[in-house]
Amino acid sequence: MAAAKYNFEEAINTFFIESKELLNDMENGLLDLEKDVSSREPIPAIFRAMHTIKGSAGMFGFADIGDFSHVVEDMLDDIRNDVIPVVPDMIGLLLNCRDHILKMLNFFDANRTGKIDAALKNESAGLINQLNAYMFKTEKKNSENVKDIDKEESLSDIKVINECWHISLRFSKNVFKNGLDPQSFISYLGQMGKIVKIKTITDLIPSMDEMDPEFCYLGFEISFMGYTSKEKIEEVFEFIREDCKIRILPPGSNLAEYVKLIEELSEKPRYLGEILIEIGSLTKKELEEALKLQETLAKEKNIKRIGEVVIDEQMVSKPVVEAAVNKQATIKKAEENIKKSMRIDTSKLDDLVNLVGELVISAANVGQVVNNIGDSALNKTFSQMSRLISEVREKFMNIRMVQIGESFKRFERIVRDISIEKGKKVDLILNGGETELDKTIIEKVNDPLMHLVRNAVDHGIDLPEERILKGKPDVGRVILNAYQEAGNVVIEIKDDGNGLNKEKILSKALQKGMITPEKVPLITDNDLFNFIFSPGFSTADKVTDISGRGVGMDVVKKNIESLRGFVTLQSKEGKGTSVRIYLPLTLAIIDGFLIKAGALFCVLPLAMVSECANISKSKKELITYENGDFINLRGEIVPFIRIRDFFNEQGDIPEMENIVVVNYADKKVGFVVDEALGEFQTVVKPLGRIFKKVEWISGATILVGGEVGLILDVPKLVQYLQAIEVKKAS
Question: In sequence order, which residues have a C-beta less than 8 Å from that of residue 418 and are 6 or more positions away?
Fold first, then answer.
């Protein structure tokens, strides 16, 4: 019993996860549709998302979600069938419906039983009224059309129907003997629409000598025009079914509609007959008849697929069957792809990565023992094991890597809503969505990105009339771009708006005492813009519901730095602003470069290391200024720090020192060390709470001999050395 309960809970959890994913797909589809309301491409995916949520909600007993989703689905079905035209206001309503379903999902996720609260119920009612307003207009229009048809008693002027149903009737000889009159059924069919043409088939009439007046020898080919379905037409001949062979083909213009319906079916496995029944091109009775015929043919060693049978018997046209076969192939391929993937709880994945990290450390310890023993066979075996461990590590790290594009897509809705609220026109341009980043980093960087994008639209982009006066297009642009650089991922948020007002920033900094008047001449643009990342700093003229309270940018910087990242800002007044976020690819295991100064071991991210060099005994290449130390590297002046002095390490300085040069955010800095020990696979261990306020260090690792190595926080050290360089230049 307990196992069954657990499985049901797991199924419900999957329902919530998948429903939220479908809502994201729906939102993306609606935003694409808003860009071009004449496009048909996004509509099937939007409809499928709502159809799936409605069905799943009903299955798990969430009636409130199912009932509301059903109304939304009805409207989407009308849109899909061109009953309702898409207008811009409709997109906003459907987005609100999507948000409301998300609220209900979150409510039931927290409260697995019961009904939605009064507020959600009222919101449902209000949205349903708005949905019905669109559908009522359409129903009214259609009812007026029906009245016109009745009045004119003719379908010849209806432009929607430009071709006819084709009905082929072949009555059995005994139909009269069974008390049935074919003419009465044809007359009843005429009441459903208009019989445009009827051709009597007389091929089976025998000679006068052989004719039996009680037998029926006639067949009919009928062209019928009417608003109906294949099943409704079949119902006309329900009582004569056993004494009649019926073939019903849809209007030629509707063949494309049947093909479209097939393409829009959900991706669940189906038999060919099921597909044809679902779209209405085949009835259940026709399928039963076709299956019996297929079985009979098989006994006669005439093997035919069901698709061939329904085509030969003129039950369904060939293009529709071909479309259904193609749909089957697509479903099969999608099913195979699903089998190749599975959902894994991220906590389980984290545990595995931690175990791989411990395995890397243990392998390094074993390697030291193997080297001490000096056995060649053992060395060879260990070398193979190390290679396998390295491959396992790479595989696990790749599992954690996900493309950033999905996170970028979420900001389309944010930009849309803010631009509408503020009366602005904004295009969001997304580039580099295929760039991969550790899933944990993506989750933690979403909030900082959200704040920067909102700022770009609210503060950065100017109003359309202001842009026109400045000679800009009335539509502003916000660009989100991601790319790899020197082993890191860079995320750029650019806008072509107002840019930052330097005078305002400087005035606010002076007002807050962040800078003294005498230092104003020495301040650079970089220093000036960095004030924005200070707590409580804001130059907004007024507070909005989005921004302007002086909170946010300091949190952005803090969150980025907590990920061992770095943020820079550039701006030109009247031209726009660009914010760059530099992030490591992963937080778990990195390729490091091991250095030593005194008794201290440190690790630098290998991807940032650009070169290593020996410092001559004379140390003539080293230059000391009043505000810092610099080295002349082949004519390039690079600031450096001595790790020994920086961390106050004691002991004798070696006669020959080394410098390790790193490149980060387009800045080169050097670290002078006693020894450069080379590459080292580094398992990152977080520092405890007691070390929380320790600067310059982002983590630790366990070395081969059991010593602790400190992972240097390169971004903060780069900032420190940049400050030295600025002072020297001034």
Answer: 424, 426, 454, 457, 458, 546
Q: How confident is the model at residue 724 (pLDDT cuts 50, 70, 90)?
A: low
pLDDT digits (tens, 9 = 90+) for 371-416: 888 888 898 898 899 889 888 877 877 888 888 998 898 899 999 9
Q: What is the pLDDT of residues 622-652, one digit of tens each?
A: 887 766 788 888 888 888 888 998 888 888 8
The CATH number that domain 2-152 falls under is: 1.20.120.160
Class of domain 404-584: alpha beta
3-state class (DSSP) for residue 577: strand
Looking at CATH, the fold of the domain delimited by 589-729 is given as: OB fold (Dihydrolipoamide Acetyltransferase, E2P) (2.40.50)
Residue with tokens 């009308």: 78
- 337, pLDDT greater than 70: no
For residues 13 and 663, give the distance between their C-alpha atoms in angstroms, rounded to a whole number.
45
Task: Please provide the size of the chain in residues.
Answer: 730
Domain ranges across the chain? 2-152, 165-339, 346-402, 404-584, 589-729
Q: Are 669 and 638 in contact (CB under 8 A)?
A: yes
Q: Which long-range contacts (CB under 8 A, 24 or more apart) does 555-563 make?
A: 555/448, 555/451, 556/448, 556/451, 556/452, 557/533, 559/444, 559/445, 559/447, 559/448, 560/445, 560/448, 561/715, 561/716, 562/444, 563/441, 563/444, 563/445, 563/587
Mean pLDDT, residues 423-441 taken together: 90
